[in-house]
From TrEMBL:
Domain PPIase FKBP-type as annotated: residue spans: 67-159
Organism name: Asarcornis scutulata
Enzyme Commission number, as recorded: 5.2.1.8
Domain EF-hand: 159-194, 203-236
Protein name: peptidylprolyl isomerase
Amino acid sequence: PAAAVPRRRPARSEMGRDMILVPILLLRLLATAPAPARAEGVAAAAEEVKIEVLHLPESCSPKSKKGDLLNAHYDGFLASDGSKFYCSRTQNEGHPKWFVLGVGQVIKGLDIAMMNMCPGEKRKVIIPPSLAYGQQGYAQGKIPPNATLIFEIELYAVNKGPRSVEAFNQIDKDSDRKLSELEISQYLKEEFARDGKKRHPSAHDEILADIFKKNDHDGDGFISAKEYNVYQHDEL
C-alpha cells in the first residue's frame, strides 16, 4: 500500500537506472519532504499501537528514534481474517525497505510501532484504523474501511537519517555550515568510487543538479544547515 511503504521518485531514462545504484548515504541529500501520514476516523489519542516483541537480540544498540534511516522487512495482515495484503519480500527483488522513521514515509502506526527498536529485533504489532487508513480504507491495497492491521516486522539496520548532524558535517569539508556545489560534487565522487558500481557518465551531473533543485531553496548556490533541515533531535 502506498502509505505503508517508503515512496520512490519515478525513474527517468538513464538517471532512473543510475539512481537505483546510488549509495544509501546519498539518499540523505535526495530525500524529499515526507507525505502526510494517513490517520483518519477515530481520534488517534483514543487508540494505541499494541506491540509484541518476538525476538530481542542480546546487543540492542542503537535503538531507533525519529529521523533515523531504517532497513526492515515487514508483512501486513488484516486483523479481521488474517489475510496478507502486503509483503516487502516480494518487492524490489526481495531487498529490505529503507525509510526514514517518524516523518510520515509510512503509516503513522508503523512510525509509532518501530520506535526504540534495535537491529535484529522482531515485532508483531497491531495498528488501529485511526493510525492506519481510517474510515476511507485503501482500495488499491485491498484494505477495507475501518480496518485494524497487523504487521510482522524484522529490523536489520538503524542508521543516522537523511538530516543528521553527522551527515551534514561529513560533506561540509570547510566547516562553514553550508554545502557548496564543489563539496557535494566531491562527496558524490567519493561515494561512487566507494561502491564501485557502473553508472552512465551523465549520472554525476544529473544527481548533483537534482540535489540542489530539492535543497537550495533560496537559489544562492549553497545548501545551508537550515535548508538541509536537520531533525530537531540533533543540534548543529
